[in-house]
Design brief:
The complex is a heterodimer of chains A (249) and B (258). Chain A is α/β, with parallel strands linked by helices and 249 residues long. In chain B, strands 5-9-8-6-10 form a five-stranded mixed barrel. The two termini of chain B are 33 Å apart. The model of chain B has no long low-confidence stretch (mean pLDDT 95). Classes of the chains: A alpha/beta (249), B alpha/beta (258).
């Protein structure tokens, strides 16, 4: 009997090469409902795994938990099980002041404002999404009619350092850096993309991300229906391109 | 900024508003400006000062320019800053680079979608955590352009370094072991080529809200072993120029179609 990986508690054959990565374990089942023949594979700690099919190809969804430390573990173990295409999907803050709530950020690269990725590569190395995945997400957004925007995310280690910086001992540094990221053109703020992108670079795997941004005005899609359907649609785009041997672009 | 209040020419590049297009090629070498301008319709020399030489002409009816940056991020950052002040907003770096993967051969082309910030200029703009990333529209157009002329093209990350000889002759540097260890780390991270300007251009572009990308001729071998005569011929810089031009035409087409 094949051995299970330590944290995800899955074994070879349990997951497809295409994996959606939400942070929240509770989002795995709603995503899996968009697959054909979804089945629950494993639950351990913050890691929930479902596998199903899209257009006859095996696809999975695995939660990462919050933050780069647990995300790095999930991605490492998924790579060991043969996955090589990852799309992070979740909710994020917005950095540009003109962002409407519900606009979807298609992540092109990540600010490494976290501690995990430096255990892999020096800080000079860019945490960058695979351009084929960026384009697949753009195409998926066109199909679902989503309002999308491509750009850089801030991957941070401290949620409350972002949303309540004033009460932190390092308040002025946090506020100053937030303004710096805004002037650099970053569009969203989340907690996992940088580690996903750096580890994917090292393993020559493909990674990208799509985020529902909280911004101006009411949150019009509390169930994240458009986010999830757009993420799933991007997998269909990639599955088709891969089956046709399409080399990006 | 200008030396003379009555003169609207930029301090270093000596170019005025209206003299350059929105679209600009950025070679490092001033000697490459004229060969690039020969691909334009109605090319004309606009200015020449220090390492900065500028030509302007047309591609498919769109005004385009070429400005040399000189070697390194310090002079490249100045060129981009001043070009944006006179109205340019889309930049394509074109030049030569060293291979960082054994499967990438001299004569192959590299489209740089991100850069390792192994240089000193960009930290004057943004903390090191911020990624030096190319604009996806520029990257896509350049990759299509390179494919359209039948070249082998790799899309990936470049090392933007400040020391040419630190890469080519690391063993004689006092910090040899650090240079060699980091070179290995960049290769393990999947970097495809080594050059000296992309990080500066991408970070400055991010802060100015303009678009930048890069296409490079790839030369050499990751272990610094010498190239054969045939490899030198395949790697002639003239062989990257048609790909860069095709990429720019593709970008102009994409922009017109929205």
């Amino acid at each position: 009997m094949a051995e299970k990986v330590e944290h995800l508690q899955i074994q070879e054959g349990d997951v497809g090469r295409y994996v959606l990565l939400p942070g929240d374990p509770g989002r795995c089942e709603p995503i899996a409902q968009l697959f054909e023949n979804p089945r629950h594979v494993a639950t351990n700690r913050e890691y929930v795994t479902y596998t199903g099919e899209l257009d006859g190809t095996s696809v999975s969804v695995v939660s990462t938990g919050i933050g780069c430390p647990s995300t790095a573990i999930a991605v490492e173990e998924l790579l060991k099980m043969g996955a090589d295409t990852f799309i992070r999907v979740g909710t994020s803050g917005s950095i540009q002041l003109d962002t409407p709530s519900g606009q979807l950020a298609i992540v092109t690269a990540a600010i490494r404002d976290e501690g995990t990725s430096s255990h892999y590569l020096p800080m000079e190395f860019p945490a960058i999404a695979n351009p084929q995945i960026v384009d697949a997400l753009v195409e998926a957004g066109r199909r679902t009619g989503a309002n999308t925007r491509c750009g850089v995310t801030q991957s941070k280690d401290s949620f409350y350092g972002e949303v309540e910086p004033d009460r932190m001992p390092l308040a002025s540094r946090l506020l100053d850096r937030w303004e710096v990221w805004r002037q650099g053109g970053a569009i969203c703020s989340e907690m996992e993309a940088a580690a996903l992108f750096i580890i994917s670079s090292i393993h020559r795997a493909r990674a990208g991300g799509i985020m529902h941004m909280m911004g101006q005005g009411p949150d019009t899609d509390p169930d994240r229906k458009l986010l999830l359907s757009t993420a799933v649609e991007s997998l269909r785009v990639l599955i088709r391109q891969d089956s046709e041997g399409h080399q990006w672009p | 900024m200008s030396m003379d209040a009555d003169d609207d020419r930029q301090y270093h590049i000596q170019v005025r508003p209206g003299e350059v297009g929105k679209y600009v090629f950025l070679p490092g070498d001033p000697g490459r400006c004229e060969p690039i301008a020969q691909f334009f319709d109605e090319p004309r020399l606009v200015a020449k000062n220090r390492e900065y030489e500028t030509w302007t002409g047309y591609l498919d009816g769109e005004m385009v320019s070429v400005t040399s940056t000189g070697i390194g991020c310090p002079s490249a950052a100045i060129a981009m800053e001043e070009l944006v002040k006179v109205g340019s907003d889309t930049f394509v770096r074109v030049g030569t680079s060293g291979s960082m993967q054994s499967f990438i051969k001299p004569g192959d082309l590299g489209v740089i979608h991100g850069a390792i910030r192994d240089e000193g200029t960009t930290s004057h703009y943004l903390p090191l955590e911020f990624p030096a990333v190319a604009n996806i529209d520029v990257t896509r157009a350049l990759a299509k352009g390179a494919k359209s002329i039948g070249k082998t093209v790799h899309v990936g990350i470049s090392q933007s370094k400040d020391s040419f000889f630190g890469q080519h002759e690391p063993g004689r540097m006092p910090v040899a072991s650090r240079l060699q260890e980091r070179w290995s780390a960049w290769m393990a991270g999947g970097a495809i080529c080594s050059e000296m300007e992309a990080a500066g251009l991408y970070i400055v572009a991010s802060t100015l809200g303009v678009r930048a990308g890069g296409i490079m001729m790839i030369l050499g071998h990751p272990d610094q072993s010498p190239m054969t005569e045939e490899e030198w011929a395949d790697g002639a810089v003239a062989n990257v120029l048609p790909a860069a031009i095709a990429g720019m035409r593709e970008l102009i087409r994409q922009d017109k179609e929205g």
